[in-house]
TrEMBL record:
This is tetraacyldisaccharide 4'-kinase. Keywords: ATP-binding, Kinase, Lipid A biosynthesis, Lipid biosynthesis, Lipid metabolism, Nucleotide-binding, Transferase. Pathway: Glycolipid biosynthesis; lipid IV(A) biosynthesis; lipid IV(A) from (3R)-3-hydroxytetradecanoyl-[acyl-carrier-protein] and UDP-N-acetyl-alpha-D-glucosamine: step 6/6. It is an enzyme of class 2 (transferase). One of its GO terms (biological process) is lipid A biosynthetic process. The keyword Metal-binding does not apply. Pfam families: LpxK. GO terms for molecular function: ATP binding; lipid-A 4'-kinase activity. Its EC number is 2.7.1.130. Residues 16-79 form the Rhodanese domain. One of its GO terms (cellular component) is membrane.
Amino acid sequence: MLGRHLLGGPAKIGVGANRAAVAAAYFEKYGYVDPRSSTSYQRLRLNKVESHLNSEKVGAVILDDGMQHWSLHHDLEVVMVNGLVLWGCCHLLPLGPLREPLTALKRADVAVIHHADMIGASFVDRLNFSDHHIFQARDVDLIRRRLEELEDKFGSKPVVVVTEKDYDRDAEILKGLYPFKVLVLCSALQFLSQKGCTEKGFKKLLEESLRVKLRGPN
């Protein structure tokens, strides 16, 4: 999915259980730019990034779910918070959704609240930073049987809606649902202005946080 969205750009996508080993392999293959050198930092500044895009060298590594990867050094930590459920039951896995205690948020440089358009501005302000039939299954025969039951019950063919991420996980299995229609739900990140916070301001915040982290104490 990421490969499709980032096609034609400078990003390189690595997948593997050992993230450090994957990154090291990319460094060896493409080379890298040390962001802690003053000259490299100037080239990597967000408002001058165009001059760096033609280089094959790796200038930054972005990890999904990287905050819990304690063995790797982090220059910048961005936490995504689901505005619809926040911390859930506030318990750690496996009793709840949290991977670390809430005190770990103190390590974060930036917190982004997603689904903000669905919770209302008044609720965001208080934050410190028809019938649907839903079922979960990956067995195509089980899904087909459930769809046929719904068709018999309501007299019309149900439509299967999956996320783009789930579609890319196993697109072939969805072909086995024919003649039922399968729709893929795609989403995109959109910044909502709140208390003067805009997309431009978010990028400026990232740049300033990186500047402080990379340059270190004077």
